[in-house]
């Protein structure tokens, strides 16, 4: 077993980057790491959000609004636990590789702006990534003060709200 594999499976040895073995070592890791998209070495949050966008387009072919509401509610509640669990196993508060929060938050954005064009979805993507990466107030407050799985999920939900607020203001002008 390599040093990276040992570190990824041995909690308490300090912060580490997940590997494939870690990804498949527990179902919670598979979800929290966005089915591997969070393991991207370049902009894992962006890659996770792109996965959220693609999965929304596929799932939207099969889900009603009620189905989406149920899925999102379960994904948020379950996400608090799975994101916190994976963060603890990785030995850090909010690992960049945990992208379930981006996926679910972007599903909310897309659901609430649908129907819209590809350009509308792209604008929503850019706005969401801006709010999630820059973390202007009030997002920064939640990112810094709420810890654990709830904190991981909450700052992205607030980023989704800010995205939707900008889109609503833009549409009203």
TrEMBL record:
Membrane association type: Multi-pass membrane protein
Assigned GO CC terms: plasma membrane
Cellular localisation: Cell inner membrane
Keywords, ordered alphabetically: Cell inner membrane, Cell membrane, Hydrolase, Lipid degradation, Lipid metabolism, Magnesium, Membrane, Metal-binding, Phospholipid degradation, Phospholipid metabolism, Transmembrane, Transmembrane helix
Entry keyword annotation includes Lyase: no
InterPro entries: PgpA, PgpA-like_sf, YutG/PgpA
Co-factor requirement: Mg(2+)
GO process terms (BP): phosphatidylglycerol biosynthetic process; phospholipid catabolic process
Enzyme Commission (EC) number: 3.1.3.27
Biochemical pathway: Phospholipid metabolism; phosphatidylglycerol biosynthesis; phosphatidylglycerol from CDP-diacylglycerol: step 2/2
Molecular-function annotations in GO: metal ion binding; phosphatidylglycerophosphatase activity
UniProt function note: Lipid phosphatase which dephosphorylates phosphatidylglycerophosphate (PGP) to phosphatidylglycerol (PG).
UniProt protein name: Phosphatidylglycerophosphatase A
């Amino acid at each position: 077993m390599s040093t990276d594999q040992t570190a990824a499976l041995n909690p308490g040895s300090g912060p580490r980057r997940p590997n494939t073995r870690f990804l498949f070592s527990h179902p919670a890791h598979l979800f929290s790491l966005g089915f591997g998209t969070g393991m991207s070495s370049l902009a894992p949050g962006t890659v996770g959000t792109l996965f959220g966008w693609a999965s929304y387009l596929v799932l939207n072919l099969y889900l009603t609004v009620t189905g989406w509401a149920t899925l999102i509610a379960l994904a948020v509640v379950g996400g608090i636990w799975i994101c916190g669990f994976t963060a603890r196993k990785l030995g850090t508060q909010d690992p960049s590789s945990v992208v379930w929060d981006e996926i679910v938050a972007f599903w909310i954005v897309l659901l609430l702006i649908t129907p819209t064009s590809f350009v509308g979805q792209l604008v929503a993507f850019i706005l969401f990534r801006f709010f999630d990466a820059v973390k202007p107030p009030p997002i920064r407050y939640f990112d810094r003060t709420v810890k654990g799985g709830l904190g991981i999920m909450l700052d992205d939900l607030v980023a989704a709200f800010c995205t939707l607020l900008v889109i609503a203001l833009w549409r009203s002008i």
